[in-house]
Amino acid sequence: MTASMPPRLAIPNEMRIVAERSVELAKLALNNYLRATYQAVSAIGDGDFSGAPDINKKAINFAERNVLSAFEFAQRIIQAQDVPEVVGLLTEFVQSQMQILTEQAKDLGETPASKRTLNSQRPPKRSRSSS
Question: Quick check: 56 and 40 in contact, CB under 8 A?
Fold first, then answer.
C-alpha cells in the first residue's frame, strides 16, 4: 500500500450483507412502532389541551424523519470503502442533521399550542404598588 492510498475497510461482503439486513429489519420494526404511535396520538382528542395533538403529531413526524435519515446514513456507511469516505459521510450527516434539528425546533416553537405553553410558563408581570 502506498502512502497516498487511504486504508481500505476490510469488511467481508457477507458481513456487509448481514449489516444491511439488520438495518432493514430495524427500520421495519421502527416504522411499525411509529405508525402505532401516530395512530395512538391521532386517537387522542383535543380535550383541555387544544393544539397538543398537533404538536404530538409534528414531533412524531420529525422523529420518524430523523430516524429514517439515520437508517439511510447507516446504509451508506455499510457501503463505505475506506476511512476517508466514512469520515466524509459522518461529517455530511452531522451537518445535515444539525440543520434539520434547528429547523424542526423552530417549527415546533411556532406551533400555536407551543406558544401558549411557553407564555403560561413565564412568571406574571409584577405591578408596582406603593406599599
Answer: no
